Amino acid sequence: MIIPYPRSSEPAKKAYRAYKERMNPMSRYLIDIRLMGPVEKQIRAISRTLQERFDLANLAVPHITLAGPFTTDDEPRLLADFGRVCTAATAPHYDAGGFGFFDRTRVVYVVIEPDPALKQFRFDLAQAIAPYCGLRDYDRSSLNEFRFHATLAMKLSWLTYTRVRWHFRTVPPVVFRHHPIRATVLRNAKVLCEYDFSQGRMLTPAQARSRATRKRDEKVLRAWEDGEG
Q: Using CA atoms, how far apart are residues 218 and 224, in angstroms rounded to an integer?
């Protein structure tokens, strides 16, 4: 169906452009857990070292991929299923530690060890969206086969990848600290919504970036670092 471009008001044109962006079959969706607190700081420091030492450009924002990138033509259903699965899930946790490598795709990552709740949450999410989302084979992995990880660098040349692997022989592992956990849905690298497990509610991008939320996160982080959480 061809949708005519509106010739009326500027708000109508803006709404049309937003609609076309949502319905663009090339839109790429990603569901992840954004790292926060000390873990994020450690991983960013490692990424900066890689960037400086190996002149890397393909560095990732610290996150744990749960599904994607994938495509779908039913964004409202995706967001509804995301909210439903998040609400029903037990708050997940994980441990971060050593480093791993995907030789075929030349990816370097931090190993993530999920607890049973995170494994189940990821699996339930994949099962819910698989019928109408273009998930890849690894997103369809069974409950215990999915390899949780936080990407450090990707799309490396083979020579650079080999040098980076050698570099990590002497890099100490990431030291895990508790931190607030949010699951996020992104479209073309832009956040659509986040679910905050510590609050048990969905956040809009504006709410997630708000001063009140930031101060609450800082308070939770301080409590956990002091051994009160």
A: 10
What the block records as the tokens of 175 is 């030291």
The residues facing 184 across adjacent strands are: 32, 194
Beta-strand relationship, 190-196 and 201-203: antiparallel
Residue given tokens 């000390």 in the structure block: 38
Answering whether pTM is above 0.70, one says yes
Q: What is the pLDDT of residues 121-174, one digit of tens each?
A: 999 999 999 999 999 888 888 888 898 988 888 888 999 999 999 999 888 888
- Residue ranges of E strands in the chain: 29-34, 63-70, 94-102, 107-114, 149-153, 182-187, 190-196, 201-203
- Mapped onto helix, strand or coil, the DSSP state of residue 38 is helix
CA 4 to chain centre: 36
What domains does the chain contain, in order, with CATH numbers?
A: 27-204 (3.90.1140.10)
